[in-house]
Write a structure and sequence with these properties.
- The chain has 240 residues and is an alpha/beta fold.
- The chain has a single domain, classed as Rossmann fold.
- It is 36% helix and 16% strand.
- It has 6 helices and 7 strands; from the N terminus they run βαβαβαβαββααβ.
- β1, α1 and β2 form a beta-alpha-beta unit.
- It is globular.
- It binds zinc ion.
- The site of zinc ion (ZN) has 5 residues, from loops.
Length: 240
């Protein structure tokens, strides 16, 4: 199976919080989209690995994902080491995404920046034929693949975006995918300990961030991205 767009997250819910609107838009246009969660989120204060898994499955249905895979790297200790890079290369070569979305290279949670660097390095190295990888034991070696473009989604830290995607038409569905992670966010009935992301203000912040990103580009709601490669367009009329 080949994917058009593949988003990587350090923890289940990172992609939903940051670029699920962008994925929804492409899925509705008939493009195939997927998510790779790098860890199970086993260090999360609320819920556990099983509830996270169930929440991720619920969200995957809302987003219409073709693929969702968890690489089960260690939560809190993501590194761009050789085994982790090879694990990401295997995914890239298997699903051959044209566009990869990765975590911001600098963010509040240290895993996010490290995950961003891990995916960035793997996107380059996946194109080198002499790095040999296999999808399944007994199969032939995978073909090299380098995604056409790689962008980092803006998550917690307010970074200046290089471009903004208009997610106004899918904002409600985007929020449903976020709220699928019910144990993580505000629930007045929950007895679990409060965390940074379980306050009502955090959810309000999700709306106001989308408003702020959208406003910069003239949309009601937006998702912001940074990119190291200059983003080009075929027609000047495609720019807002
Ligand atoms: Zn995270």
């Amino acid at each position: 199976m080949k994917l058009d767009v593949l988003a990587f997250g350090a923890h289940p819910d990172d992609v939903e919080l940051s670029c699920s609107g962008t994925l929804l838009l492409e899925q509705k246009r008939g493009h195939s989209v997927g998510i790779v969660d790098l860890t199970l989120g086993e260090l999360g204060t609320r819920g556990d690995v099983e509830t996270r898994r169930a929440e991720a499955e619920k969200s995957s249905v809302i987003l219409g994902l073709s693929v969702r895979i968890n690489l089960e790297l260690p939560d809190g200790f993501i590194q761009a080491d050789r085994p982790s890079i090879l694990a990401v290369i295997r995914i890239l070569r298997q699903f051959r995404p044209d566009v990869v979305l990765a975590p911001a290279l600098e963010d509040r949670h240290p895993d996010h920046g490290r995950a961003g660097n891990l995916v960035t390095e793997a996107c380059f190295l996946a194109g080198l034929a002499r790095i040999e990888t296999y999808w399944q034991p007994g199969e032939g070696p995978q073909q090299p693949w380098r995604p056409r473009s790689l962008h980092q989604y803006i998550q917690d830290r307010l970074l200046k975006p290089d471009f903004v995607v208009d997610i106004t038409s899918v904002m409600d569905q985007r929020m449903q995918s976020i709220l699928a992670f019910g144990t993580q966010f505000y629930d007045p009935a929950a007895e679990a300990p409060n965390t940074y992301i379980s306050s009502p203000e955090f959810l309000e912040g999700i709306y106001s961030r989308a408003r702020e990103m959208g406003r910069m580009a003239g949309f009601a709601y937006g998702e912001g991205f940074t990119t190291r490669k200059v983003a080009g367009v075929k027609s000047i009329l495609d720019l807002f």
